[in-house]
Amino acid sequence: MNKFIRVNMTTREVAMQETPEKYAGLAGRALTSTFVYDEVKPTCHALGKNNKLIFAPGFLSGTTAAQSGRISVGAKSPLTGTIKESNSGGSFSQKMAKMGIKALVIEGMPADDKFYIVKIDMNGVVLDEAPAEILNGCGNHEAIKVLSAKYGDSVGIALAGPAGEYRLPTANISFKDPEGHIRSAGRGGLGAVLGSKKVKAIILDDTGAPLSVPIAKPEAFQAAAKAFAKALVTHPVTGKALSAYGTDVLINILNEAGGLPAKNFTAGRIEWNDNISGETMNATITERGGEGKVSHGCHTGCIIRCSQWYPDKNGKYITSGFEYETVWALGADAGIKDLDDIAYLDRAMDDVGVDSIDVSVAIATAMAGGLLPFGDGKAALEAVKQIAVPTPMGRILGGGTAIVGKLCGLFRTAVVKDQAIPAYDPRAVKGVGLTYATTPMGADHTAGYAVATNILKVGGYVDPLKKDGQVELSRNLQIATAAVDSTGMCLFIAFAILDIPEGFNALVDMINARYDLALTADDVTALGKSVLKTERAFNAAAGFTNAHDRLPEFFEYEPCPPHNVVWDFTPEEIDEVFNF
Amino acid sequence: MNKFIRVNMTTREVAMQETPEKYAGLAGRALTSTFVYDEVKPTCHALGKNNKLIFAPGFLSGTTAAQSGRISVGAKSPLTGTIKESNSGGSFSQKMAKMGIKALVIEGMPADDKFYIVKIDMNGVVLDEAPAEILNGCGNHEAIKVLSAKYGDSVGIALAGPAGEYRLPTANISFKDPEGHIRSAGRGGLGAVLGSKKVKAIILDDTGAPLSVPIAKPEAFQAAAKAFAKALVTHPVTGKALSAYGTDVLINILNEAGGLPAKNFTAGRIEWNDNISGETMNATITERGGEGKVSHGCHTGCIIRCSQWYPDKNGKYITSGFEYETVWALGADAGIKDLDDIAYLDRAMDDVGVDSIDVSVAIATAMAGGLLPFGDGKAALEAVKQIAVPTPMGRILGGGTAIVGKLCGLFRTAVVKDQAIPAYDPRAVKGVGLTYATTPMGADHTAGYAVATNILKVGGYVDPLKKDGQVELSRNLQIATAAVDSTGMCLFIAFAILDIPEGFNALVDMINARYDLALTADDVTALGKSVLKTERAFNAAAGFTNAHDRLPEFFEYEPCPPHNVVWDFTPEEIDEVFNF
User: Fold this and answer.
1) N or C end of chain B: which has fewer CB within 10 A?
2) CA B155 → CA B58, B68, B92, B118, B353, distances in Å?
3) What is the CATH number of the domain that holds B321?
């Protein structure tokens, strides 16, 4: 895995280099964040010619290790203005790794308005003009069909949807999954960066590539991979709950905990939880049959299988990757009480290519601001579809929660660093509140998922309603996550490796066997710390200070029922999270 | 002038206090900025209950001194997130001063959705419910008529227009001028703060107030006021150019200089300057007659008289305060080549209550982004009127240039700290570029009008195309401006006091005679420095760093014709402006 590819869209020249020495020991988020820190001017305009977009598989991508199929994408974010790493499932990471590509960089910007396809195979890189039929609002589902017909059904695809073409702040990068459906590097508007470079899609054709990456110590690797898979299967969350109910299992759990933000963050519990719960989703899929699947993996080698295919009343596929955070935002925060309405919205957001968290919270915010009728899924669907045009309404929703809040004149706008706060109320799940406030990514639950320990009692237990222990919890999880995001592993392995020491050891053993290293747990921690410090240094140079590590003020003075708790960390306490 | 009035909109209680000792020696911008620094949490939400809005007349307001009728308004800005002082003509400042009111503070926020009128007379303060007929999109022209009918034709009025009611980021505060027309504290969205407090209007009824404020040394004051007026009349800019052609005299001057930003900041000169110049404006008003006036003052005691009444083809009044910056943005930057179209747009922006700079630049940006047809004044007018509804399109324009740029996916968005860059290209008028970059207010030409010395050769001459001398120029002008903004004086006095020493001395003498002080020129400079440092300290605590003191990146690599100059100050050079 040694090719370092740079595609310069100003000159349309491609450089296929050996990986620079300084990046040899990095992968995934560690590589993308270090590269962005090294080469992107922190004060540049995220949509200007000086931003750079980098794709990198993780340390274990391309191996047979379970859950190793995540692709990291990095750049300066047009949404937050911070450094950004966003990752996704699909087949892209594994194909890149097998093709020996350490990183793919898209830089520069064409002077003209033509869109291109970057096609990479074992012979090299070619820039094709993008077919007109997939431009100017063509949905991602159709675009993937067109591109698969043109380049082959088995190619990997990364795609800027209509929102990416229009460079809207919530534009995601969509990845084709093994069945041709859509997975997303959702957060932070990286699709707008791809669109700004006039790259409509990247095609990976791994024909002729080896079936696996080279493994330095194959036997040791197999043994570790087996121990690792065993930990995943053994743990109740990764072995059972997620495959049975998907991530939407959390609706009832968070509702019970009083930490399910409702009606634009004015409450922490709803009464219509049965309409939208994971249990209801499972029962609906099971009952409808047809193309529905209760459990499904987003990439080859996934054994957690938290995804699903959600079908309509006639059994026809609507959407997959139908996540808790999307269901929460639309179902609880926006009060859309029909899971089918939510499924069509999820599909529509995938189709136009936007972050389904930021746009769903934007819908809830727009409803609170009088821009959409509260709880009206049909009206919301029509508005989301307008992103593909784009109408003014479409642009507003594609602008995301922060902009919707400003255009509705609201102080109750749930964002940190202009990125929407997801599905866990920070007043009632205080550990994740510290993660929202302090992660270099803008509000992001995945950056340090303290919900695990606050609510699911994974990795011990820290009372979600109290401040004690939360600073250390968020800090340690952010450090661990920065390391896991560098492995190419799905973040959900954290449940198993937090609780099962053999699982964590097996993860380190796999990396050692893959590269003939002798890393210890301390090295993993050191890597995580180093990644975070690099990211934070970029942000500081871009103008971010501790004053940006704050939650929206209303959390401090509006108590969240049923526990009637407020966000009560002092600035000094919050700033302790990054004191390491 | 000793009453310090606080209106708490949470409790609807009014406190009429003596001015606290620490504010006794402050007025205008010095008072508003110090108060905001003292009492507003820098990280608060600008539309939340913890922001405070303060109105303060200047040191010389209420006297007979020429040009002393400006009112300062301060708060944390919902547009920029910085501290903000915005000032306006009209009768408000003089009435406040004569009524003995040092400051009026609006704080807190009602829990319900009713709008109120704050009515102040010599008996005290009363909160009335706002008449339904002036709410929900009623234009400012009509609202002023209704309020004048209800409270009397001679009252002073400060008003949140439809944009202020909807709390849009560009909402201004409109002030009734002596003839019942509209003047604006335009920049920074302070109308949204007034709207967030649910104050539709403030009425000042000065019946029974003295005709002038007390003057400690009347004879000395009269002598100084006379010398001051003489300087204004003598100087070619304040004595002649501004009264003949209004501020729009600058169209031809900046066009000749190659510093008139055109077609969304892609050039510095236009060919259709004759369509929109001050000379054409003067000729059109003269020719049409009717209600037109070539020259007019925005407040009693104005002898510069840069305003005008611009009539339609039938001689019927369209708008006044028809400023160069608005004509430039619509005429050159947005390419609307018909002065009548621009006049109707100016009137419409006054009517919905938005900053005519930020929204006009937003229109040019929207045209560059494909959201409006380039150069189409009729389409732009329809869009601006939609702010009163508000439709999605109306909200977008009311969001201002920064948001329009994001929703159009542009890197060429002319803002600093999210406030629109006005009518002087920073590449070709480098001194004002430093002011845009560094003023605590966000891009604001009035904060340190280096155009005077770069282009008009007032206060000496510094070559606009070269870097030499610009840092000192911008710094010194920002310091002087912060002091002038504290006097209640119109900023245009700067032309005369920069060039005519007797004018400057007379200004200081007037303040000394008014209060029986012995201030020197050094004291004035010290005041200006102190104001700037206070403002900058607020911003730092709100999270602003030197990285925010930067122009948009495209100015660095896109040369501006005809001089083909770029913005070439290094970060270190820029940061020298505030090294004092």
Assistant:
1) C
2) 19, 18, 9, 12, 19
3) 1.10.569.10
Q: Is residue A549 part of a domain?
A: no
Give B147 to chain A, closest Cα distance, Å. Answer: 25
Distance, CA of B144 to CA of B351 (rounded, Å) = 10
Mean pLDDT of chain B: 97
Domain that holds residue B279: 247-423
**Rounded to an integer, what is the distance from CA A226 to the centroid of its chain?**
27
pLDDT tens for each residue of B453-498: 999 999 999 999 999 999 999 999 999 999 999 999 999 999 999 9
Using DSSP, state whether B333 is helix, strand or coil.
helix
Distance, in angstroms, between B390 CA and closest chain A CA? 9
What torsion, rounded to 10 degrees, do the Cα atoms B380, B384, B390, B395 define?
80
The reply to whether A367 and A418 lie within a common domain is yes
Kindly calculate the radius of gyration of chain B based on its CA atoms and give it in whole angstroms.
22
Burial class of B211 by CB neighbour count within 10 A (0 to 12, 13 to 18, 19+): exposed
The dihedral built from the CA positions of residue B350, B351, B353 and B355, taken in this order, carries a sign that is negative
Q: What is the dihedral of CA B186, B188, B193, B195, to 10 degrees?
A: 40
CB contacts of B169 in chain A (<8 Å) are 406-407
In this prediction the pTM is 0.98
- CATH number of the domain encompassing residue B56: 3.60.9.10
Residue A463 lies in a domain: no
Residue A463: φ, ψ to 5°: -55, 120
**Block residue for tokens 């968070």:** A254
Q: Is the pLDDT of residue B299 over 90?
A: no
As for how many domains chain B has, the answer is 2
Kindly list the distances between the CA atom of residue B570 and the CA atoms of A4, B428, B434, B549, B575, in Å, as whole numbers in the listed order. 32, 16, 11, 11, 9
- Nearest CA of chain A to the CA of B349: how many Å? 17
ipTM over 0.90: yes
Q: Which of B395, B547, B548 sits opposite A407 (nearest CB)?
A: B395
